[in-house]
């Protein structure tokens, strides 16, 4: 499965989807977790291993929460709510990331 994502660095990594009105898929590289404080809408989450295989998912993760996972994995996709269901993404699915540099 292929997903177009924006890779985050620096401040955009810390910000994630906070403040966006039209959320897009983004890739964040971090070890332990993310927060959704300041987010105004739920999002879908998928934690990937180094091979791009989904290890953990969370559908409709609500604002003002903390999501933690095994520090063995350091890549997480933040997706618009409903993306996991729509694209039939589940644990064990391999995802090929297509980086959008805009």
Would you give an account of this structure?
The protein has 102 residues and is mainly β. It has one domain: Protein of unknown function DUF192 (Jelly Rolls), CATH 2.60.120.1140. The chain contains 2 helices and 8 strands; from the N terminus they run βαββββββαβ. The strands form 2 sheets. Strands 5-4-7-2-1-8 form a 6-stranded mixed beta sheet. Strand 1, helix 1 and strand 2 form a beta-alpha-beta unit. The longest helix has 6 residues. It starts with a strand and ends with a strand.
Average pLDDT, to the nearest integer?
Answer: 84
| CATH third-tier fold name | Jelly Rolls
- Beta content comes to 35-45%
Round the Cα radius of gyration to an integer and report it: 12 Å
The total number of structural domains is 1
Indicate the structural class.
mainly beta
Quaternary organization:
single chain
For the biggest β-sheet, the strand order reads 5-4-7-2-1-8
Uncertain regions: pLDDT < 50 for 5+ in a row?
A: none
H and E order: EHEEEEEEHE
Helical fraction equals under 10%
The helix count comes to 2
Named CATH architecture = Sandwich
- Per CATH, the class reads Mainly Beta
Number of strands: 8
Q: Sheet with the most strands?
A: 6 strands, mixed
Superfamily (CATH H level) name: Protein of unknown function DUF192
Q: In whole angstroms, how far apart are the ends?
A: 21 Å
Dominant shape: globular
